[in-house]
Amino acid sequence: MQVRVDKIELLRQKLRFELKEEETRLLAEDMERQGQIQPIAVKLIEGDRYELVAGRRRWEAAKLLGWEYIEAFEGEYKQGIDIAASAENIKRLQMSPMEEAAHVAYLHTDGNMSIGAIAEATGHGTSWVQDRLAIGQLPLCLQEGLHKGWFKIGAALSLSRITDQPQLEYYVHCAKVGGCTAQTAEAWWLDWDARNRANPNNSFNGEIPQPLPLPEPPPCKCFLCRELKPRVDAVVVTICIDCCQEVDRAVKEAMRQELTESTKENFSRRDSDPTEDQERPKSA
Question: Strands 228-229 and 220-221: what pairing?
């Protein structure tokens, strides 16, 4: 049967959050050349309104092509088939962590599957399944950051320990602008935790606290003059090992000559000054 494209609704939250535009465009080009080979599955809601059961990519491609109608078949929702499809999608499709989390949560709750069973069905380890179940409980700002790739799961779990919502949203914004590794997220949490312990009664007043200043880097020894200099004054020079050894030998030779000349000068000064021997106490 044919169903109006605009009368189909996407109601189930477990379906993929967002489809990649390139995938949808390629499928639309294929459907435009060959037509719709496989119908989508829908379920009647009421009147002429239908719920999409399977075939979201084909439905999105039809909307992109501007089709008014799409081939579909109506059938009752079968949970067993849908559970198997969710497990297969996790293995086959390139999903964001939050999309994977939505499918894993569906398998765990609606499918009544254990963590071990989900791991076996999806081809992943139990720790992978536990991580997806955990991120499904994260604050919405962290879920958004995971879905859009601002940071990875490890960073999100570290940031989730920050219980002050405005502070957490500030750090998520920093991750959006400049990125955030797991080490950075851990440092942000430690910084927030230290401030919170130092002043536990301090409530957020709208002023965003800046991270603690980094310690001054230690000085470095100059390769030529051998003196300690601030690291900001150091210059990185690329030379081969042979030239490096040659410069090192030249520096050492110059230092020996300088020491020799200084010693000769001291002896010469002593010999030319007769009072030095007179002032020197005689040994018994």
Answer: antiparallel
User: Does residue 86 sit in the same domain as residue 191?
Assistant: yes
Could you tell me the CA-to-CA distances from 209 to 101, 194, 196 in Å, in that order?
Answer: 33, 12, 12
Print the domain residue range for 64.
2-77
Distance CA(135)–CA(162), nearest Å, equals 15
Residue where a domain terminates, one of 35, 61, 77 = 77
For residue 206, being part of any structural domain is answered with: no
The CATH number of whichever domain residue 163 belongs to comes to 1.10.10.2830
Phi, psi values for residue 74, rounded to 5°: -100, 130
pLDDT at 180: 92
Nearest to 101 by CA among 156, 55, 170: 156
Distance from C-alpha of 180 to C-alpha of 28, rounded to nearest angstrom: 36
Least confident of 32-36, 93-97, 112-116, 249-253: 93-97
Assign 207 a pLDDT band (cuts: 50, 70, 90).
low
Chain segment 56-70, per-residue pLDDT in tens: 788 888 999 999 989
**Residue 257 located in a structural domain:** yes
